[in-house]
Structure to design on (284 residues):
């Protein structure tokens, strides 16, 4: 079963990195994400209505759903801000690195999961590689005030990712993954709406990027949907770091598609991340 979970997580990584590249290339990030999740909300509404109808309502389940909605909404709003600060191959690793640092540790204690010694070594490779990709070990970067602002936003994104990942691990016990995707859509629409009203760039974004918006409507919820199903097949402590394979893909997309700089250094560091993933997936 772990092999199937692993394959689902890798597919999730490809989809996640691709829609993030689309978001980076968009004109107005908030408008792009609002259109994307608006279309997805229409597609997933039947599943949400079904889950609401059949679920057993309690205070804990209601609070978990609200927590997921707010964490997902804040996450997507912060993502729109993060891509205004830097390259995909720089910002994306910083966002994903924080979640990779937190989720395995918390899941070991919260869900009684485990990692072997080799698994923890692989986890260390992943986290160290991700932050190296971000430029954290460069003294030049550390002297740049814009870098610190980027760090604050991307770290907040990572904390939200860790928060909704751990929350949704419990939510999928009483709510279907398809219904949970709609919770994410509602969160996105709620938190992105103020910027949409203020900037009034929704129509221009749709006119210029409607093709990638439509494709992103499939890839964005699809990436998390694949991961939610994978969580039912294998321990979260093993799967969450492997999902960070999207960092390698995102780095390559940034270098070869978006023509970003420092390609050689970021590719080598991505190999370190891949080595960590191999350690967890084989001996974790």
């Amino acid at each position: 079963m772990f092999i199937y979970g692993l394959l689902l997580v890798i597919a999730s990584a490809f989809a996640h990195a691709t829609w993030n590249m689309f978001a980076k290339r968009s004109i107005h990030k908030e408008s792009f994400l609002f259109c994307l999740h608006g279309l997805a909300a229409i597609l997933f509404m039947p599943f949400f209505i079904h889950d609401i109808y059949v679920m057993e309502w309690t205070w804990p389940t209601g609070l978990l759903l609200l927590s997921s909605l707010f964490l997902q909404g804040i996450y997507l709003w912060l993502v729109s801000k993060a891509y205004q600060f830097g390259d995909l191959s720089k910002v994306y690793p910083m966002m994903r690195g924080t979640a990779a640092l937190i989720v395995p540790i918390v899941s070991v204690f919260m869900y009684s999961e485990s990692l072997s010694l080799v698994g923890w070594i692989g986890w260390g490779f992943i986290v160290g590689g991700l932050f190296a990709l971000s430029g954290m070990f460069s003294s030049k970067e550390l002297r740049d005030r814009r870098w610190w602002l980027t760090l604050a936003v991307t770290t907040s994104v990572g904390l939200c990712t860790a928060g909704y990942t751990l929350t949704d691990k419990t939510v999928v016990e009483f709510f279907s993954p398809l219904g949970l995707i709609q919770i994410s859509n509602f969160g996105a629409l709620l938190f992105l709406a103020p910027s949409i009203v203020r900037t009034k760039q929704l129509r221009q974004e749709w006119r210029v990027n409607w093709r990638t918006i439509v494709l992103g409507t499939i890839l964005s919820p699809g990436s998390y949907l694949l991961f939610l199903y994978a969580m039912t097949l294998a321990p979260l402590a093993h799967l969450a770091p492997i999902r960070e394979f999207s960092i390698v893909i995102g780095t390559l997309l940034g270098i070869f598609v978006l023509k970003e700089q420092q390609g050689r250094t970021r590719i080598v560091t991505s190999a370190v991340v891949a080595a960590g993933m191999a350690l967890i997936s084989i001996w974790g």
